[in-house]
């Protein structure tokens, strides 16, 4: 079956990546607190589903490369993952077994469909993380959207979840109905999406009013919004400047976006976590809409977006999808999305804050330092890799220096045990960054999150 699917060129299978999200969910479960509300049962269900999806990926890859009898392949591919998943569901067998089998079957269908719809875009491991993430999001949304939220964070979470769910339904509709890919139906569909997001009765008051009340409540919040809008303007200016050049963006130019996302996330996590949480969802939705405009060649934006993609893409953007910018945002935001009610404790629990900074430290700080300094001063290459030893050293030192500065400023309270876990996580992430051919923006935050969280 793997032979008929088309993964990304010049990259390994990456099957081990399918283990990362289940492990990260277990880590986040260990840090769940009672003040999060009734989330325990849903979290256990998500862990069970993630384990089943992971096992489904591994058995699929195993039976694709190792010849076995048809009956054994059927048991390994269709029954075993669903049964193992159902064993992890804290419900009776009449509910757990069909649930486990259904989840793993849907996962495999979507997994294969991704390779057929977007050939040469993902490795098998990268696709596993993406599909696991989407289906876990849908399962979480189904479980949580039936109750009206009370706190500001829960209200904004409900708004963001319903908006992204509606956007996902729009993407499915565009895939299934060719007529909707024409300009007029497409833009009408976008208007309907905007109305659904702002007026759907998922909160009291309606989402638009709840958002305005939240944004106007705190002067500091308005100040951070203005600074973020300024950074967005700088980003647009950088893209416009690069498009006027006849050459493609090099590594140092692309890492400017890592620096800009660093300037957004760090103040947001420290001072306005709930606002940042909402902003990550808004940014993801904007990325998806812009990518739809480009892929469907919608006038008048398609030509500019295509030019920007061609100018900034790197070797991992081998398929039709702009993989790198998505993975940059997702990698930085994953620790926030994975952690139950992160913003209720982000300013009080330094251990939790260190977890939430996993994406920023590895992608925004470490990977940027490794790429910029490695490309300029790197002389000694790792075996079977184009990464340099100097870049790896820069990766490690930049993260440890950043954590030290956060400790000196009083943002983080680091014990000896936390420092040991941070150093160990940084060294592991540095080795993966140096040696892997997978999308490191997606992988490094999860590795750091898991190690620091389990320590």
Structure in words:
There is one protein chain. The chain has helices at residues 20-30, 40-65, 70-88, 93-117, 124-144, 152-176, 183-199, 207-216, 219-243, 251-271, 273-295, 302-312, 323-338, 350-356, 358-377, 389-408, 416-435, 440-454. Helix content is 73%, strand content 0%. By secondary structure, it is mainly α. The model has no long low-confidence stretch (mean pLDDT 87). The chain contains 18 helices and no strands.
Unreliable stretches (pLDDT < 50, length at least 5) are none
DSSP strand content:
under 5%
- Count of individual helical segments: 18
Oligomerization state of this entry? single chain
Our Rg estimate from Cα atoms comes to: 22 Å
Helix and strand succession? HHHHHHHHHHHHHHHHHH
- Computed structural class: mainly alpha
Tell me, rounded to a whole number, the average pLDDT: 87
Largest sheet entry: none
Write a concise synopsis of the structure shown.
The protein is an all-alpha fold and about 450 residues long.
Q: Which helices and strands occur, and which strands form pairs?
A:
Layout: H1 20-30, H2 40-65, H3 70-88, H4 93-117, H5 124-144, H6 152-176, H7 183-199, H8 207-216, H9 219-243, H10 251-271, H11 273-295, H12 302-312, H13 323-338, H14 350-356, H15 358-377, H16 389-408, H17 416-435, H18 440-454
Helix pairs in contact: 1-2, 1-18, 2-3, 2-4, 2-5, 3-4, 4-5, 5-6, 6-7, 6-8, 6-11, 9-10, 10-11, 10-15, 11-12, 11-13, 13-15, 13-18, 14-18, 15-16, 15-18, 16-17, 17-18
């Amino acid at each position: 079956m793997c032979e008929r699917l088309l993964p990304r060129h010049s990259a390994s299978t990456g099957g081990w990546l399918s283990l990362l999200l289940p492990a990260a969910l277990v880590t986040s479960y260990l840090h769940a607190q009672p003040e999060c509300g009734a989330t325990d049962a849903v979290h256990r269900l998500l862990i069970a589903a993630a384990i089943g999806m992971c096992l489904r990926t591994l058995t699929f890859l195993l039976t694709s490369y190792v010849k076995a009898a048809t009956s054994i392949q059927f048991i390994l591919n269709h029954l075993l993952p669903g049964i193992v998943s159902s064993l992890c569901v804290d419900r009776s067998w009449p509910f757990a077994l069909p649930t486990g089998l259904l989840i793993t079957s849907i996962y495999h269908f979507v997994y294969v469909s991704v390779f057929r719809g977007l050939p040469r875009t993902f490795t098998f491991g990268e696709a596993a993380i993406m599909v696991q993430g989407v289906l876990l999001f849908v399962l979480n949304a189904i479980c949580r959207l039936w109750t009206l939220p009370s706190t500001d964070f829960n209200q904004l979470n409900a708004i963001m979840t319903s908006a992204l769910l509606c956007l996902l339904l729009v993407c499915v509709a565009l895939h299934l109905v060719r007529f909707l890919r024409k300009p007029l139906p497409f833009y009408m569909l976008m208007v309907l999406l905007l109305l659904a997001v702002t007026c759907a009765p998922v909160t009291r008051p309606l989402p638009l009013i709840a958002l305005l009340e939240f944004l106007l409540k705190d002067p500091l919040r308005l100040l951070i919004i203005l600074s973020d809008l300024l950074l967005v303007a700088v980003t647009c200016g950088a893209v416009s400047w690069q498009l006027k050049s006849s050459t493609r963006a090099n590594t140092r130019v692309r890492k400017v976006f890592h620096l800009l996302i660093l300037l957004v996330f760090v103040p947001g996590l420290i001072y306005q976590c709930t606002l940042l949480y909402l902003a990550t969802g808004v940014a993801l939705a904007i990325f998806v809409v812009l990518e739809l405009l480009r892929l469907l060649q919608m006038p008048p934006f398609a030509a500019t977006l295509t030019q920007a993609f061609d100018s900034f893409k790197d070797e991992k953007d081998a398929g039709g999808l702009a993989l790198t910018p998505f993975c940059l945002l997702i990698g930085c935001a994953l620790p926030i999305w994975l952690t139950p009610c992160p913003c209720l404790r982000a300013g009080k629990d330094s251990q939790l804050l260190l977890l939430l900074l996993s994406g920023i430290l590895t992608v925004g700080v470490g990977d940027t330092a490794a790429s910029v300094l490695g490309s300029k001063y790197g002389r000694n290459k790792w075996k079977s890799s184009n990464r340099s030893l100097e870049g790896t050293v820069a990766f490690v030192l930049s993260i440890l220096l950043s954590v030290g500065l956060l400790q000196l400023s009083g943002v983080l309270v680091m014990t000896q045990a936390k420092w040991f876990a941070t150093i160990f996580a940084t060294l592991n992430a540095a080795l993966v960054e140096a040696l892997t051919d997978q999308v490191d923006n997606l992988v490094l935050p999860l590795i750091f999150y898991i190690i620091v969280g389990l320590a």
